[in-house]
Each structure stands twice: as C-alpha cells, then as structure tokens.
Amino acid sequence: MTQPEQTTVRRLGPGDEDVVRKLAEREPQVGLLADEATIFLAAFQGTQPVGFVFGYELPRRHGAPSILFIYELEVDVACRRQGIATRLMTELERIARSRAR
Predict the structure, then answer these.
(1) DSSP secondary structure letter of residue 3
(2) Which strands sit side by side in the sheet containing 48-59, from one edge to the other?
C-alpha cells in the first residue's frame, strides 16, 4: 500500500482566486479573499487543492471581543479519513487564537 501524498495547509488570500474556483461547485464569491475578518484555508496534496475550511471572525457585544464562526468545511471524498479536516481545523484554531491576542 502506498502512502498518501504529503498534505500542506495554507491560508488563502488575494491571488488565490483560481484555487477557490477549483474547490467550488458553482462560481464562487472570490471577493472574500481580501476580507481580513474571513479566514479561508485550503489543504493541498502537491499543487491540487483537496479540502478547505473557512470561517468569519464576528464581533461580540459582550464577553470576548470576537468569536469565530465556522461556515464551511469540506474534504474531497477520495482524501477523507487521512486527518485533513483535523489539520484544517487545527490551523484555523491557531490563526483565530493568535488574532485574539
């Protein structure tokens, strides 16, 4: 049995519109890549995107100044059960916590 290809995770931003289009089922809204309150991460095997998560940092009226709302999480069917969703969520949490300081 061969090992799955190494998976990398990175935050998407302006210039990654083609990556978002590859991940979408319909024409996506790529303007959110420039929104600082949106955290959009993609997982790649080689140069191929195989999963993503994105959420919004929402202001709160009391308590902590903001909360992370996870809007969507998806991993390609052929790449599931490899820990990709866990890696995406772990990185999303790390980014959100670092912004809260």
Answers:
(1) P
(2) 7-11, 38-45, 48-59, 66-75
What is the reported pTM? 0.80
**Across the chain, which distance is largest between two alpha carbons, in Å?**
53
Residue among 90, 98, 99, 94 nearest 51 (CA): 90
The closest alpha carbon to 56, from 90, 32, 22, belongs to: 32
Exposure of 56 in the CB half-sphere (CA atoms within 13 A):
6
Tell me the residue length of the chain: 101
Taking only the tens place, the pLDDT of each residue in 24-34 is 777 777 777 87
∠2-7-52 over CA atoms, to 5°?
Answer: 130
HSE-CB at 6 with a 13 A cutoff on CA atoms is 2
Distance from C-alpha of 93 to C-alpha of 101, rounded to nearest angstrom = 13
